[in-house]
Prior knowledge:
This protein has helices at about 15-20, 25, 30-40, 60-75, 80-85, 95-105, 115-130, 135-155, 185-195; strands at about 1-10, 45-50, 50-60, 90, 155-160, 160-165, 170, 175. By secondary structure, it is of the alpha+beta class. It has a single domain, classed as Beta Polymerase, domain 2 (2-Layer Sandwich).
Amino acid sequence: MHLLLVGISHRTAPVELRERVDFQARGVADALRELAGRGSAREAVVVSTCNRAELYVACDKSDAAREDLVRFVSDFNGVPAGEIAPHVYDVTDLDVARHLFRVAAGLDSLVMGEPQILGQVKDAHTIATDAHTSGPVLNRLFHTSFAVAKRVRTGTLMVNGGFWNAPDVPFGGYRQSGVGRENGVEGFEEYLETKAIALPAS
């Protein structure tokens, strides 16, 4: 079993394309049911916000599943695959965990640290659970991401829209005194890496 993520975001696609690839507007539950019927993924969660559309799946063959997921994004949203493909990114296995942990913690947001994304990720998992498309692999992945995001937020301060380490709070295996460094994100990366390593692909 492999973890696979296929998506577009503010980092890879212009807003005009992101507005057309909108699972939220077309119905995330409907998307999950249609995706489940294609047979390329054993489990699936769709995270759809104004800045990203990401498909998280557990599958047997990641290469074949990737091709089918790109076609699915095109088919479901009515956008030609040729317009979507140049903007798609995909990662597998532990890199999926690392990416999701960054997303849930707000480290991959357009506005770093914005608080809405964690709720949106939780809602995405709830919809998938209700649709019976999230199973033991993705349940473990997403619940771990919630814990990581909580730890990031409770162990940091927000300064001018960015993360700094909180005074004397141990984080990611080290302790930093005072009001952190501007590049304190390095400590969060260490923590995310630790959590990802503790979450092997099933």
